Amino acid sequence: MGDPKVGGKAETMKMLTITKIGRKLAVLGFVASISAATVQAADYKIEEVVNGLDSPWAQAFLPNGDILVTELSGQLRVIRNNKLVATPVAGVPESLYAGQGGLMDVVLHPDYANNQLIYLSLSVGTLEANTLRVVRARFTGEALADVQTVFEAAPKRDTAVHYGARMAFMADKTLLITNGDGFDYREEAQDLTNHYGAIVRVTDTGKVPADNPFVGKAPAQPEIWSYGHRNPQSILVDPKTGAVFETEHGPRGGDELNLIEPGKNYGWPKATYGLDYSGARISPYTEYEGTTQPTAYWAPSIALSGATLYRGTQFPEWEGDIFVTSLLFNNVERVDMNGTQAGDREKLFGEVGDRVRNIATGPDGALYMLTEGDDGKMWRVSAE
Questions:
Q1: CA torsion 309→377→57→357, rounded to 10°?
Q2: Among positive and negative, which fits the CA dihedral 156, 160, 161, 164?
Q3: CB under 8 Å to 201, separation ≥6 — which residues?
Q4: Residue 23 has pLDDT above 50, yes or no
Q5: Count of structural domains, the chain
Q6: Neighbours of 257 (CB within 10 A)
Q7: What is the dihedral of CA 84, 89, 92, 94, to 10 degrees?
């Protein structure tokens, strides 16, 4: 499955600076229809912001400068003034911490400055019957209040893996949520009567938007926005253009970067560039009529996880590019984007030496990475 859980905790904190200046790196790996090249890397500095996190999974930046971090084991933490607040946020709903499940993504409501609403994704239930749930709550600064369920994937399954669980708000304040195929239920990703392997779209309160592509087309689930996904590990909405991208964790090969459009079928498992973990073919097709090809794919797999689309001020040469984390190679790959077209790739930030779970663009224009382990860390990548 390529994405095991890591547990444990340490509570020490320190600051560490690693500097890389003027590096020239070869672009490695395969991008569909794009040849490899050598590019000049930007000058950057990496600082360890905090350590002592327990399997950190996602981060969100508050207007007051605080950073929220989810720990897969179930805690929501606050980083304040480059220090980890010792006491976790109170009132976080209980999650099923098993397999790849637990407390996963966190995003802010677009009007957070006025309503203090945050959204969390988590696995719930038992090993025999579990699913993905999204809740919203008001964050008081120390606790969550008024917790409400916004979405729950159906039906439940008996596998605690492949939840997807990433979220992003669109410009119209509707919420996109990724759902994985449950690993053992991959064929269900082609069935519109369930949420397996689908990206869903709901309002900020959990209602079905009237313009969703499968509204009124029963028995299709009306929340579905796109389908045919395996384990979507990020969902990105470009704040400049509104384009939606998704990264997808494949089996042996077949990691994907997709441009997501409503109603489209992204192929899994009818069409894939990956092999099963046994080495057997999953499908004889890499393309199939009625399915959409990825914008880029990786073969062999790099075990994609989190991603960010860079719109910041510190690295103008990276403007509009997509950064994806590799759980397999403990680094990040930058995909050189020309609008919605993927170009060459560059490997970066491998000097941190740990599995990079997520990467996000901060309001200061720096990149913030989360690395796993029983002493998980947050790193800040800024211009030199």
A1: 60
A2: positive
A3: 170, 174, 175, 176, 177, 209, 212, 223, 225, 262
A4: no
A5: 1
A6: 26
A7: 60
Report the C-alpha gap between 376 and 7 in whole angstroms.
9
Q: Is residue 178 part of a domain?
A: yes
Residues 187-228: tens digit of each pLDDT: 999 999 999 999 999 999 999 999 999 999 999 999 999 999
Within 188-312, strands assigned E span 198-202, 224-227, 232-237, 244-248, 255-259, 296-298, 304-309
Take residue 270 and report the two structure tokens written for it.
């009818």
User: 54 in a domain, yes or no?
Assistant: yes
Decide if 76 contacts 88 (C-beta within 8 A). Answer: yes
Q: Determine, yes or no, domain membership for 6.
A: no
Concatenate the DSSP letters of all residues of 299-349 into one string. Answer: SS---EEEEEE---SS-GGGTT-EEEEETTTTEEEEEEEETTEEEEEEEE-
Q: Rounded CA gap, 26 and 197, in Å? A: 34
Instruction: Give the C-alpha separation, 50 to 64, whole Å.
Output: 18
Least confident range of 21-25, 132-136, 265-269, 321-325: 21-25
Question: What does the pLDDT look like over 48-102, one tens digit per residue?
Answer: 999 999 999 999 999 999 999 999 999 999 999 999 999 999 999 999 999 999 9
**5 belongs to a structural domain:** no
- Determine the average pLDDT of the residues in 31-45: 47
Q: How far is it, in rounded angstroms, from Cα 104 to Cα 57? A: 6
Distance CA(168)–CA(173), nearest Å, equals 9
H or E element, residue 38:
strand 38-40
CATH code of residue 91: 2.120.10.30
- pLDDT over 90 (residue 25): no
pTM over 0.85: yes
Reference 364, options 117, 59, 61, 19; nearest CA is 61
Sign of CA dihedral 112, 117, 121, 122: positive
Determine the pLDDT at residue 1. 56
CB 162 within 8 A of CB 180: yes
Phi, psi of 350 (to 5 degrees): -65, -15
- Residues with catalytic annotation? 162
Structural domain harbouring 146: 16-383
Two tokens at 334? 């930058």
Q: Which residue has the higher pLDDT, 156 or 36?
A: 156
Maximal CA-CA distance, the chain: 57
What tens digit of pLDDT does each residue of 236-246 get? 999 999 999 99
